[in-house]
Amino acid sequence: MNNELLQSADTEFTCADILRLPHLVGIRLRAGEAGLRHPVTHANVMEVPDISDWAQAGEFLMTTGYPFRNNPAMLSGMIPKLVEKGVAALGVKTKRFIAEIPEDAIELAEKYGFPIFELPPHTVFSEVQRETMERVLAQETEMLSILHQHVQQLSQLMLEGKPLDEFIACLEAIMKRSVALFDDSGLLYASETGTELEEILEGKTFGQWIDLGTGKDAKTTVVHEDLPVRTTPIHANGRERSAVLFTADFPIPHSKMDILLLERVRVLIGMELSAIRMRREIESKYMDQFLQDWLLGRIPTEKDIHMRAEASGFCLPVLVPIFVILARPLDQRLHPGSLKQAVIHLRSINVAENTQKHHNHIHGVVIRDQLVFIAAGADADFAVRSVREELALMFSHPDEPSFSLCTGKGALSLDQVQDSYQEAVKVALISVITGVRQPHVTMEQLGIYRLLYLLSDEEEASSFRDQYIEPLAAYDSSHGSSLLLTATTYLEYNLNAKKTAAALFTHYNTVMHRLERIEELLQISFDLANDRLQLEMAIKLYAMQAKFSKI
Fold first, then answer.
1. Which end of the chain is more exposed for a tag (fewer CB within 10 A), N or C?
2. Which ranges carry the Purine catabolism PurC-like domain (predicted)?
3. pLDDT tens column, 256-268
């Protein structure tokens, strides 16, 4: 095929190229100059009045005007339908069936940016179709060849293990437009020259941007001060959405070459993100094992702690004291798998240049299905504030859980960190048992419950507990009743029998009958403050013993 038929790799065969077809010498553009960049995929002839029902996107439609020779106003009524169908342009051959193109049709086409050409009288439609398709096919052949070269170039970067930043920079150079990648870890990959797009993206979180890219298909969205950006969702490891690729749709819209390249690039990026995520998970497993062994006291000396930390790629805190803080969910139980993913997510965020300097003194890990943080700082308040910042990064949605931070005593050496962890666990357990829901809890803040914990293993305390618990437990066992649960709930609701009945889904009279039975069995009266205090202490001791026997 003659080289002069080939189009530039950066362009497509567009409506503007129709003006340069050899057969159409004398053609005139009558309307729609704004739409001359519309791509043309094929040419078709329109000689029936209902052609809008059959028209296809990208078509250059040609007509002699025969369908509306007796009613030229019909042409105006068809234009909105053709625009809606995505037709590229309309060519009208005048002087045979209609003398000229109606002015109202020209005005309407101008309004829509829909090109209308007045074709010269000598126009042979079959010749126009042939010339159009020659150029379209030539351009597509050339485009696919260059597309293949671009994909090979980008694939080579992946094979050489180049970082995603370099991949994005290369893609930007190929497309000659700003490109950025935002992944679900909150990491933003952009070249040094893509500052305009980067500034736009940094204004929102990944969750907000991913909402713009909802669905499997790419689309163009106006995201900032009337600047259009194309969002291409990236899928990795079968995840619905793991990243979004952003490409500036300004100063000129994406060409067909750009769109085809993005379709192939999204696969390459998805594969690379899968590999990155796999590496992170493996690294996290080594780090998790070290942190678990350290906090559970399985590493005997500080020297061994340093050796294991170095082997797992863990940066030990430099500041002292070191606090262990257990983040206890208040209103919902979180699945261990989701907690582990949140920790991996947090670690990937802290790798980012713009956050690392703020969070390198905090590390999270999941131990026995609980979210635990190691935080170094001047005091416990500083450590708690730092952990709150980490939780905000891990759980960024408004409906995410709230936490009570159960804090162990500050450790002044690495081998004392296990003691801080054990205390944090005890604070959390006592808080659960006693219903403490404060945002920050230490052993000192637990008051009388701390004393109950210290007494929970004493023989006298066990005897005191059994004096109240055993009669109720024995009665419940032999009668299939719930006296112990009723007593516990009644005390929790400050002796409000109606609220107790509602909480237990039990009739009010049944609750009152149970309370009378409890008073009879224990020889107490709920009206006496001292009797209530002793029963409540016994119940708390019983709950503590049951909880602690599981750890």
1. C
2. 17-135
3. 889 899 999 999 9
